[in-house]
Amino acid sequence: MLDRVRRWAWGLPGRLIASYILVTVAVVVLVEALVLGFLVPRLVNGVKLQAQLQAQVDATAKSYGQQIAQRYPRGVPAGTVLGDPSVPAKLVLTNPDNTLAVPAIAGPFDNGKAVTAVVVTSPGGTVVASSVPSRYPSGRPAASELPPQATGAMASPPTFKGGSVPTPWGNVLWTVWQVSRSGVSRPSASAPGLIAYVYVQVPWAPPGFISPVGAWGQLRQLGDTGLVLLAPAALLFAIVPVGVLFGLLTSWRLVRRVRRLERATLAVADGDYSVALPVSGRDEIGRLEANFTTMTRQLGSALAAERERAAGDARNAERARIAREVHDAISQHLFALRMIAAGMRRADGDNQQARVIERISSDVLREMQALLIELRPACLDGAGLVPALQEICAAYQDRLGVTVDADLDDVTVPAPVELALLRITQEACANAVRHGGARQLAVSMTRQDGHVELAVRDAGTGFDPAAPHAGSGLVHIRDRVAELGGTVDIDSAPGRGAALTVRVPVP
Q1: Domains contained in the chain, number
Q2: Any residues with CB less than 8 A from the CB of 483 and at least 6 apart, and which?
Q3: pLDDT, tens digit, for every residue of 41-60?
Q4: In 443-497, which ranges are continuous DSSP H helix?
Q5: Per-residue burial over 388-409, b = 16 or more CB atoms within 10 Å of its CB, e = otherwise
Q6: Is 158 helix (H, G, I), strand (E, B) or coil?
Q7: Does residue 61 contact residue 198 with C-beta atoms inside 8 Å?
Q8: Do 467 and 506 touch, CB atoms closer than 8 A?
């Protein structure tokens, strides 16, 4: 049981389940880091910092209003440059009293960005003084220089009280305060003794991405970590069972197909090449199953061909051994017997027994020579069909003195057809010489109309094709031709020889 669990854990299902769980955990952790890095600063820092900076803008406007009311009770002189010349223009600085340090920029200023500035407008809506005269020049209408929300606050005091607004130079936080002889207050519809309006702005941009560790620290200070961790913790808690279930469902069919392939490979390793796997899909494993079946079929065919070749080689070797034994023993004895009978006949011309022995021994020796030719068949050996057939004809003519007329066209046919035509020629010639006593043979081969025609004709004693025969030569010929889808025609009769015609279809 332990081994089975170990194999399952380290096998394909366990690895798939582990990968699903690890990928899901990594995604959850990444999403949590992005939430901490992007959303927390916007939710915490954005609101908190904007509120703090807005309070500083309000305090700065109030401070400048008090200064203007004290120094210019009859109105601010036109062209007055407000602010502090020692404050850098590119920084947002805070004074000890929580007001903004406004830089005084008397010269040209055009850096293309928003800047901390204070602008004083008259009750009639004209710019009187500012901390950046080149950007907010004196005498210009406030409606053309300040944001519409600011001029709207001056026209409709209860509606606008400050906030964030986009400008041509970037987002700013702003506020508008009124300056009157009785003090400073929020704008109102009717302000007795109104001296001017004070507009104050500061550049403002929401915070971007920060380190998730830093965001986590801010959440801990605010005491909001539990809410942020609740959903990820619940998701991580549910990942393990869901991952196991998902891994089992997705890997079950895949593992079953792989195990079927494993069993098939073991069967092939044991020598069973008849294994055929059904193709269970069009994916990589499906193609592997199809290729595996094709491979086993090819291996089976190659093994069967190798076995057949080995068996054929063994048969040929055994026939060659028998032929050597027959030639070295029986043939030599028959030849000696014929020579003795011939001597006896010459010594005694009336000795009929010697004549019979000489004749019988000559006939048996001739048949023995034909049998030796059959036992030592010609071989293709890659030379082609025509040379192999010519070798057979030459053997009958040289060894038995049989006249063979060979008319063979050079044809190209598949290897199985070559072998079948070679064996048919051997069988037909052997039958003609051994059983028909033929001394003349005619062998021809032509190709026409998608067929190869092989004909063997002899001038022997002939036979009746319809009569039963003890031998199996003709049966073997018919079987070979039937396997190739061809036809066999035998034309013979007693006393007038025989003609064997074979027609085999070829591509």
Answers
A1: 3
A2: 420
A3: 555 555 667 788 888 898 99
A4: 473-483
A5: bbbebbebbeeebebebebebe
A6: coil
A7: yes
A8: no
How far is 407 from 384, CA to CA, in rounded Å?
16
Q: For the chain, give percent helix, strand, coil, nearest 5.
A: 55, 15, 30
Give which of 453, 426, 423 is closest to 441, Cα–Cα: 426
Do both 426 and 295 map to the same domain?
A: no
Tell me if 478 sits within 8 A of 500, measured CB to CB: no
Average pLDDT, the chain: 77
Structural contact between residues 178 and 200, judged by C-beta atoms closer than 8 angstroms = no
Whether 22 is in a domain gets the answer yes
Which of 271, 293, 318 marks a domain boundary?
271
Count of residues for the chain? 507
Task: Provide the pLDDT for residue 23.
Answer: 75
Q: Which domain holds residue 282?
A: 272-303
Domain co-membership, 23 together with 163: yes
Question: What dihedral angle (degrees, nearest 10) is formed by the CA atoms of 146, 150, 151, 154?
Answer: -140
Residue 260: both structure tokens together: 């079927």
Closest CA to 201 of 160, 133, 146: 146
Task: Give pLDDT tens digits for 402-456.
Answer: 888 989 988 888 888 888 888 888 888 888 887 788 888 999 999 888 899 999 9
Instruction: Please indicate, yes or no, whether residues 234 and 94 belong to a single structural domain of this protein.
Output: yes
Model confidence at 152, pLDDT cuts 50, 70, 90, reads confident
CA dist 427 and 370 (Å) reads 11
Vertex 426, ends 371 and 500: CA angle to 5°?
120
Within 8 A by CB and 6+ apart from 78, the residues are: 128, 129, 138, 139
* Same-domain status, 188 and 288: no
